[in-house]
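Consider the tokenized backbone below.
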């Protein structure tokens, strides 16, 4: 009798232990799933707002002004210049529902003015849905460093300038915008570079710059060749981004080469064109929604955490949820804004994925 009772108690203990372990695992899974919620947002930082502090001051209006400014910056980084006017809005009732949260810092009351710095967190899914409702294909707002080599050729004098007397070299960094994603690395003066370019000047439009670019350790680059003919300017741009080479030509007439503002306007337009190409390389097609099911061994909490961090950081993961959970496996249902092959390309560098079954297994 005592032996039977002991066996019953022992079995009960094992069941209780198993249930407790399962509950703990469940709690940990939920914690891991909610720990990185901020990765489901687009963050816009350093929004500076300054308003008169008088009888008409209302902090609500200041906050709303920060929301509108942050929204404008985000949209400018996500859509091409041709879609910018369509996507912009100052309708605060439209913008507010797309905001998850915000932070205010460095608040000051000085000389009858209120100033503060805002950080605004936009819901990624709502932003994508908003732009999709306008039939706009958005892109991943991803900053990128690129090598920039400007070459100025005076066709009337047959002279070539790369550095000091190159107006575009001297003014390129002076043209800035908080909406730009591309950050340019401009080489310092280098006699070897100059001699190589000079040697190839007669066929500079077809030259591949392979003798110059590798030494700067930058995968992506822009080479811009400016041909001046009196007050006319032809610009040939070779833009290499994400292993794709684009060559574009543009023309400017009645250029005042003695006016820095005219040169800066040309630079600004060029930078906008380069931004558009970069956005094209990083487009998110929200109309593509590939359902992908992934299974991970439940007890492997480290792998689950790593996988969820990857899901959260991926700009192409539209949504995901835990479809099924038990003491053996945790199964995720993922909505991916691209093809399953693209998903594998993105995730296979970090995970071993077995695709032999309908539900893929991550190990």
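A designed sequence for it:
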């Amino acid at each position: 009798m005592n032996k039977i009772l002991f066996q019953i108690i022992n079995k009960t203990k094992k069941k209780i232990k198993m249930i407790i372990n399962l509950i703990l695992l469940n709690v940990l899974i939920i914690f891991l799933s909610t720990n990185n919620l901020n990765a489901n947002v687009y963050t816009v930082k350093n929004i500076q707002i300054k308003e008169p502090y008088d009888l008409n001051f209302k902090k609500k209006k200041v906050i709303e002004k920060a929301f509108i400014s942050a929204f404008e910056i985000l949209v400018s980084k996500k859509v091409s210049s041709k879609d910018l006017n369509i996507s912009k809005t100052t309708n605060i009732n439209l913008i507010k529902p797309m905001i998850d949260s915000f932070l205010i810092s460095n608040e000051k009351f000085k000389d009858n003015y209120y100033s503060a710095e805002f950080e605004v967190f936009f819901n990624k899914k709502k932003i994508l849905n908003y732009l999709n409702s306008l039939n706009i294909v958005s892109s991943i707002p991803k900053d990128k460093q690129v090598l920039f080599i400007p070459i100025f050729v005076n066709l009337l004098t047959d002279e070539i300038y790369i550095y000091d007397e190159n107006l575009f070299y001297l003014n390129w960094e002076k043209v800035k915008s908080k909406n730009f994603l591309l950050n340019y690395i401009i080489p310092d003066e280098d006699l070897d570079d100059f001699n190589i370019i000079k040697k190839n000047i007669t066929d500079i439009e077809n030259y591949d710059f392979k003798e110059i670019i590798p030494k700067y350790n930058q995968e992506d680059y822009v080479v811009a060749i400016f041909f001046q003919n009196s007050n006319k300017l032809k610009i040939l741009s070779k833009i290499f981004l994400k292993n794709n080479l684009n060559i574009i030509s543009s023309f400017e007439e009645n250029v005042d080469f003695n006016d820095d503002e005219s040169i800066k306007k040309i630079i600004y337009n060029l930078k906008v064109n380069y931004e558009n190409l970069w956005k094209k390389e990083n487009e998110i097609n929200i109309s593509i929604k590939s359902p992908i099911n992934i299974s991970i061994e439940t007890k492997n909490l480290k792998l689950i955490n790593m996988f969820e961090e990857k899901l959260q950081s991926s700009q192409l993961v539209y949504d995901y949820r835990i479809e099924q959970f038990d003491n053996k496996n945790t199964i995720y249902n993922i909505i991916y804004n691209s093809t399953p092959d693209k998903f594998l390309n993105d995730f296979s560098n970090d995970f071993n994925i077995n695709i032999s079954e309908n539900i893929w297994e991550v190990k």
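The CA atoms of residues 55 and 288 lie 52 Å apart.
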